[in-house]
């Protein structure tokens, strides 16, 4: 049934609740991120300040990642996610207060800027827990044979939120201002907390509760580095994201190059997510597990080409279309990667494997934002984006030539094995 039913995962009630929670979280987080970007660039008019936002998030996210994975594998997942959401709501409330007229009138711009950076830093600490917890929880909600379908809808929900969050953020900045935009975000996060409580607590499948932290972390790292499919997917995506950080410079393109204002900024920010969302809806009907390695390489190569086109364009609609197609290629990549991770990772190690992935890929988003900001500072935004896209192409070609086994990766047999297990 799971092989042919594109709605297999959606027939599970708790999975639908999980998707709604994730939608609200990603919607709020992505909307908050671009509102912060807009506010910071408005305060500084310095592209390097946008890179610093990424740096402030990557430091705690990267340093805490492995330890967070250990904790996730030791704890009950539903309650741990609820704790993370509650803490995230405090960050949203803090940002809301920092844009209050009274605070803005009494504090210096530098004090407000540094306070925003501090809250982003705390958010990076929380993010080290969010990824592993969500990755582990979804595997406890759906049966193994439905993993690929669940990965498609999970990623589609993430992308839908990524469409609406940035778009709404871009428009609300112009309509009601930064302050009340952040109020909306705070409300969304609180809503996700109460909806999550409708999911029942899940069993802890780790047989080594109380295992020493060092032993636990070593086991997780050994698994990742000996499993070529997992390591290859992580490495390829890490480098592509690191050098494909055009999104971090969108405020510069929207305000100074394309001159389209906050509404155009929202369109540009949403365009990749629209493309990815449409692609992932298609993959619910057309499985992409066969020849998954080659498809992943082609998808990321296409992503690099789109980033280069975006960087060279000074026409708004060409830029938006390039970002749209970058999202389509990234959507294919995302579904394949999530399927690889879910199929290849044992239940008791999901937190640690997801944490390693966050170090490889998640942190490279912020490091890529910092790299783009620094490059733009010294060489200009256009050069920074074109350089990143070119490095992505080089990475894909090098990976394809250096790893024939990854080119030949096929997930069909793994899926058949899981069906027989269930």
TrEMBL record:
<keyword id="KW-1133">Transmembrane helix</keyword>
<dbReference type="InterPro" id="IPR010290">
    <property type="entry name" value="TM_effector"/>
</dbReference>
<feature type="transmembrane region" description="Helical">
    <location>
        <begin position="378"/>
        <end position="402"/>
    </location>
</feature>
<dbReference type="GO" id="GO:0005886">
    <property type="term" value="C:plasma membrane"/>
</dbReference>
<keyword id="KW-0812">Transmembrane</keyword>
<feature type="transmembrane region" description="Helical">
    <location>
        <begin position="48"/>
        <end position="68"/>
    </location>
</feature>
<protein>
    <submittedName>
        <fullName>MFS permease</fullName>
    </submittedName>
</protein>
<keyword id="KW-0813">Transport</keyword>
<dbReference type="InterPro" id="IPR036259">
    <property type="entry name" value="MFS_trans_sf"/>
</dbReference>
<feature type="transmembrane region" description="Helical">
    <location>
        <begin position="229"/>
        <end position="254"/>
    </location>
</feature>
<feature type="transmembrane region" description="Helical">
    <location>
        <begin position="112"/>
        <end position="141"/>
    </location>
</feature>
<keyword id="KW-0472">Membrane</keyword>
<dbReference type="Pfam" id="PF05977">
    <property type="entry name" value="MFS_3"/>
</dbReference>
<feature type="transmembrane region" description="Helical">
    <location>
        <begin position="80"/>
        <end position="100"/>
    </location>
</feature>
<feature type="transmembrane region" description="Helical">
    <location>
        <begin position="298"/>
        <end position="325"/>
    </location>
</feature>
<feature type="transmembrane region" description="Helical">
    <location>
        <begin position="153"/>
        <end position="173"/>
    </location>
</feature>
<feature type="transmembrane region" description="Helical">
    <location>
        <begin position="179"/>
        <end position="199"/>
    </location>
</feature>
<feature type="transmembrane region" description="Helical">
    <location>
        <begin position="266"/>
        <end position="286"/>
    </location>
</feature>
<keyword id="KW-1003">Cell membrane</keyword>
<feature type="transmembrane region" description="Helical">
    <location>
        <begin position="15"/>
        <end position="36"/>
    </location>
</feature>
């Amino acid at each position: 049934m799971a092989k042919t039913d594109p709605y297999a995962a959606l027939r599970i009630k708790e999975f639908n609740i999980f998707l709604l929670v994730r939608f609200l979280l990603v919607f709020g987080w992505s909307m908050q991120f671009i509102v912060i970007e807009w506010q910071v660039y408005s305060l500084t008019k310095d592209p390097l300040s946008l890179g610093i936002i990424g740096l402030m998030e990557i430091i705690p996210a990267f340093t805490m990642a492995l330890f967070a994975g250990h904790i996730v594998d030791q704890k009950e997942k539903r309650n741990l996610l609820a704790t993370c959401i509650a803490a995230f709501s405090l960050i949203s409330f803090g940002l809301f207060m920092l844009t209050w007229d009274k605070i803005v009138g009494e504090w210096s711009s530098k004090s407000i800027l540094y306070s925003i950076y501090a809250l982003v830093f705390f958010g990076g600490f929380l993010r080290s827990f969010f990824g592993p917890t969500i990755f582990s929880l979804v595997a406890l909600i759906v049966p193994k044979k439905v993993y690929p379908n669940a990965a498609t809808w999970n990623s589609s929900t993430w992308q839908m939120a990524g469409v609406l969050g940035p778009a709404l953020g871009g428009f609300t900045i112009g309509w009601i201002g930064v302050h009340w935009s952040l109020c909306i975000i705070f409300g969304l996060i609180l809503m996700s907390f109460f909806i999550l409580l409708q999911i029942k607590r899940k069993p802890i499948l780790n047989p080594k509760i109380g295992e020493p932290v060092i032993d636990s972390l070593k086991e997780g790292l050994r698994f990742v580095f000996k499993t070529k499919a997992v390591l290859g997917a992580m490495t390829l995506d890490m480098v592509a994201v690191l050098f494909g950080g055009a999104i971090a410079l969108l405020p510069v393109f929207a305000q100074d190059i394309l001159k389209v204002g906050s509404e155009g900024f929202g369109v540009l920010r949403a365009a990749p997510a629209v493309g990815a969302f449409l692609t992932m809806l298609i993959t619910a009907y057309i499985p992409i597990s066969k020849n998954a390695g080659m498809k992943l390489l082609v998808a990321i190569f296409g992503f690099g080409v789109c980033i280069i086109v975006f960087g060279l364009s000074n026409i708004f609609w060409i830029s938006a279309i390039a970002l749209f197609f970058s999202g389509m290629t990234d959507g294919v990549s995302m579904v394949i990667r999530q399927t690889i991770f879910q199929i290849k990772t044992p239940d008791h190690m999901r937190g640690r494997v997801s944490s390693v992935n966050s170090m490889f890929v998640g942190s490279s988003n912020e490091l890529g934002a910092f790299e783009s900001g620094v490059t733009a500072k010294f060489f200009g935004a256009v050069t920074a984006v074109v350089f990143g896209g070119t490095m992505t192409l080089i990475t894909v070609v090098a990976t394809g030539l250096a790893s024939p086994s990854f080119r030949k990766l096929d997930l069909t047999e793994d899926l058949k094995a899981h069906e027989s297990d269930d």
